[in-house]
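Dear V.,

Thank you for sending over the compound details. I've combined the ligand you provided, S-adenosylmethionine, with the protein sequence from our construct and run the structure prediction for the complex. I'm sharing the raw inputs here so there's no ambiguity about protonation or stereochemistry in the SMILES, which I know was a concern on your side last time.
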Amino acid sequence: MGRNQRDPDRVVRGPGPKSRRQKDLAMPKNYDITEEQEPNKKISSRAKVRAKKRDLKKQLLTSLVEAKAEKKEADKIEEEDEIKEEETLQLLSDDDSDDMPDDEFDLDDDDDHVEAEIRDRVIGEMRGEDHEDDSSDDEGEDGELPIERKTKQVLQKRSQLSKDCNDNSAQNLRSHAYLFDKRAVKENNIQTNIAETETFVLPSGQEIEKENTLLFKNHIHQRIKDVVAVLSDFGNKRDPERTRKDYVNVLRKDLCTYYSYNDFLLSKFMDMFPLTELIAFLEANEVNRPITIRTNTLKTKRRDLAQALISRGVNLDPLAKWTKVGLVVYESPVPIGATPEYLAGHYMIQGASSFVPVMALAPQPGERVLDMCAAPGGKTTYIAQLMKNSGFIFVNDINKARLKAVVGNMHRMGVSNSVISNYDARSFPTIMGNFSRVLLDAPCSGTGVISKDPSVKTSKDDSDITKCSHLQKELILAAIDSCNAQAQNGGYIVYCTCSVMVEENEEVVNYALKKRNVKLVQTGLEFGVEGFCKYRQYRFHPSLKQTRRFYPHSHNMDGFFVAKFKKFSNKIPSSDDVKEKQEVKE
Ligand SMILES: C[S@@+](CC[C@H](N)C(=O)[O-])C[C@H]1O[C@@H](n2cnc3c(N)ncnc32)[C@H](O)[C@@H]1O
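Below is the predicted structure of the protein with S-adenosylmethionine bound, written out as structure tokens.
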């Protein structure tokens, strides 16, 4: 049975002691028992405690009422401030009541609770009732009654509130700080609201890296432009504290970063080109060269080929004035390496720069020609068509695997005047000679074909260039020695590389001029820039200006070098002769 459940069988005898004590007091109005009011009346200590309690409770109630009124006023001021602020900022219209820190103005709950408690106690006291909690009137260690402690707490809160309310500037500051806090929260809300309605896709590490790289690259690019501008007008634009070398060092590093070159290769290019040309060269290396094809005149004419391809939807044009066989392909709905015309050998896909050395060689029908480093045979097939498939072409390469491609190309293009061999060309003069013309398309560093093979940007160093140069010097002597100076209309050697390095080009040619009885002649090409006669520490024979350089930025073709020699004697100069030759030249 529950504690409050009455026993139905119990005989009720009358009101118990508790109900008697709860009887309403018949008290005169304004009745208050205090020592001051009745100083002579003797009262018990218990009655004194009760009187003290009543007094405190009364004070407390008054304080609470006042505190509430003050708080209401503070709320009102704050509300007004906030409305003004809201109107000015015109930010959000949502309710921010939850944004207010809990401990800022939260007296209400606490006060209501204490107030209710006190009210109960006062009524209880007035009824002569002891409250369960303080029936023993426990005093604290410092002699304080629990009710006194509570009263103190409420009074403290109240005094704090009054202080805040009275201190206008403090209040303003506080409400402003609070409003700013709220505005920050609201602004955050603007952003997070988007996140609430849309799914925010977190970028992957790769995407972030890409974005950072892009930002970083843009920054570097701007600095490159700025430094180039300073170096172009150094007297006016320089920082007097900095030397030209300082600027050049920064530029070199930035160019390496921006275009992804190693320091070695970029320094080489910096030595070779004036600044504006350097940037144009580097930019051109970032772009693919146009697709060009060469008509195989052994099988068709350029006009017929162009017609056939146009009818397949290929968009093309004649390549340039300097060639009667070249076409440039802008776009094609079919793979240009798989058309029926291609498979029938009507054309070769070949960079414009590859036309040039063969044009310089100018092989004639019926001649005996050597292509020393021929694989995969692009230039060989051009030689064959210029020779009208007559005479002989000895097609050599050290790489057996690459020779398979040569065989395939010869068959497809209908070349029937060739013999394929697989020798180290350095030994070729000991195998056979007496060639009217020799083409040496030498293995090289590939620094002219960076757009085709960007790995060159970082894979080459000084030793690679030196090694190439060394091999090229050996090969060029072998090429000259394979050629017959007495051949009718012949005795020509063309040396070419797809490198722009001076060490692989002018230096090799200059070496050959010293070592053999050859001289440089005009290439017969209408374009291209002259080779270097003077370059940094190098001083080359003045005839080097007859060699030709081709650049991606100036000729829209791969970087290339071409030199044409005429052999005037089959005698190989002795070392004494070479010394003598050198002295005469110097
Ligand atoms: C630039 S590629 C020739 C490209 C060819 N002329 C063409 O137009 O298709 C250089 C060639 O030289 C060959 N080579 C390298 N060292 C050689 C050597 N010592 N003797 C003969 N060929 C060599 C390579 O195998 C390579 O095929």
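A first observation: Residues 90 and 150 are 44 Å apart (CA to CA).

Warm regards,
I. M.
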